[in-house]
Every structure is written in C-alpha cells, then in structure tokens.
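User: My collaborator and I are trying to settle a disagreement about how two of our proteins should look. Neither of us wants to argue from intuition anymore, so we agreed to look at predicted structures for both before our next call. Could you fold the first one, then the second, and keep them clearly separated?

Assistant: That sounds like a sensible way to settle it. I'll keep them separate. The first protein:
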Amino acid sequence: MNSTLSVLLVLLFASNLTGMERVFRDVPSSHWAAESVRNTTVVHRLMDTFEDGTFRGDAVVSRMALVIAFHRFLGEAEDLARQRLNDFAVGFYSFRDVKDGSERVSAETLANEYMLFDNIPTIDVARLSPGRPVTRFELAAVCQNMIRLLAKRQALIEQEAPSDELPFDDVPAAHWALQAVVDCVLTYELMIRPSTGSFRGDFEASRYDLAFALSRAFGIVRRK
C-alpha cells in the first residue's frame, strides 16, 4: 500500500469517527434509545441533528418535525415493501398556516394520501400549527394510522393483540386515543411502556420517543 493511499484511509477513518461522535455526542451508549437514535440519524437519515453535534433527545418534537421524519420513513417503507402505500385520494386537509413549498406538500401528502392524521381531534383540517409540540397521544395516533395503512396494503407484519387489561391508570376507556395506545405500546411496541403505571399522553413527546417509534417501525414492515 503506498503512502498516499495510507494517508487517505487514515483521514477517511478519522472523519467517520468524528461524524459518529457528532451524532451521539449527548447520547450515552447505555441510553435506552441509543440504538434508535443511531438508526434514525446515521443509518436511515430520518431525523436531523444539530449543528453543535448534539441530538437533544429530551427536546420536544414539533408537528413539522414529525411530518418530515414520517415522510422520510414512508419513502423507505415503500422501498422495503416494493409498493406505493398512499391512496392518491382527494383529501380535505389544507394547512394554510404552513408556507408553500416542500414542507406544506409533505404535510398535506401525509394527511390526504397516507391518512396519518385521521381521527386525531387535536389536528385541525385547515391548521397544522407546525411549531406546536406533539403530545404522546398524538404520536400514538399517528403510529396507529401508519399501522392501519401498512395493514391495508398487506405490508404489515401483524402482531397478536395482548389479552391483558390496559396497564395505564390515566387512559380512560372512553378516551379517543385508547386503541392507539394499545396498538402502539402493547401490541407493536413502538412506544416505551412507562414504569410508573401512567401513559402521560398529554405530555409532550420527545425526540427520543420519535426516534424509538420510527426505528421500531422498520421491524413491522413486510419486505417483498
């Protein structure tokens, strides 16, 4: 091996280490979401990191950040399933509070063609409120709609629903997101089950929560 090639390989190896350090700088390897963060930032590029080299996993997820991440995920899911998952249906969502451009196209595509915002009463058909934090109930509902979309396209690896009672004391039987919580936490395990006995659905979802959900979602897509 000549000296020039050796130098280039050393520089390439060093740059890769720097990149890895930048992505995981504030995420300990022992953290419960460390692998999910790696999958959604390095492997699949679904979520962005910050210019200072941090992930900021405890930061809240805005609705626009959720839109961007799920739009990217569905693109990869379609590649895995080798089929389009959207309906091309004429929807009724028109987010006038999102400026024209790729972000508005992504948001309205997820809502109208992929139906990820269906049956979520906190999201208005005319206003996305892009900077508003996503709640854990809303994240569970979006994940449930994704599960239903995959099932409709026969691209879902189905799991057996649990027979035990809902273990959360703060999700009443009449709550609009009850089935979403069951599907996402108990059946498909796209969200972590808190050890406190409470789901805390009205709490803001974190970037760790989103990374975990998206990383786990790759495991329920049926490959073709």
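The second protein, kept apart from the first:
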Amino acid sequence: MGKDYKRRPNRGAYGEETLRRALGALKGGQSYHSVAKSFGVPRRTLQRHFKGLVEPLYTLIALLHQDVSLLLLQLQLAADGVVLHHHSRRYATLNDRLQQLWTNYTNGDLTTSRFLRARLQIACHV
C-alpha cells in the first residue's frame, strides 16, 4: 500500500431497488446464499431486512413528526398548568434523554438514521 492509498468502500453499492428485488426473491422461497450471490447484496443485510430488524426511514420520520406534535401539545398543557406532577417528572426524564440524543445528533456524533433509531427505542420504552 502506497502513501496515496485510500480505501473506497462499496457499502450499499447495490441500491434500494436491488435490495427490494432481492427481498422479493427471498419471499419467493430462494435461499439467502443464492439471493446474495445473484443480486450482489450481502447475506447479513438480507437477513436483517427480511426479518424486519431494519426500520424503514419513512416510519421513523412519521414517528418524529408525531413527537413534534405531541411535544407542542405538552408544552401548551404545561404552560396552562394542566400537567400533573408525576407526569411532569416522567416527561422531564424523557425530555432529558431526548435532549441528550438531539445534542449528540447536532454535534455530529450520530447519523440521521442512528438518531431516528435511538428515538424509536425511546418511544418503545415509554
């Protein structure tokens, strides 16, 4: 390796449409190995997507939009003094976690997809 060597990753080089067609082939009964070989998509990627371990981005964006709507309502209720004390403690903890997540995202410590996945995890545990 010379000093001008720069690794050129090929992650995700297969494209979203190819992934969709590969998943269709899996649903048709083909094996992971044969689909991975014929479509050029890594076998583990196929397994994650086929088993539903990867959340589609549009679902995460919809959740984020719902969060913003709920947050505005909560702020209005808090301003009106309607939120009960035990709810405010619970939301304070949740808000701290969300604020830390947002700070990490804006500092560049998290990618958008990791941010949305982490946000989804918080939503599942509420």
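Some points you might bring to the call about the second protein. The chain has two domains: 1-54, 57-124. The first helix runs from residue 16 to 27.
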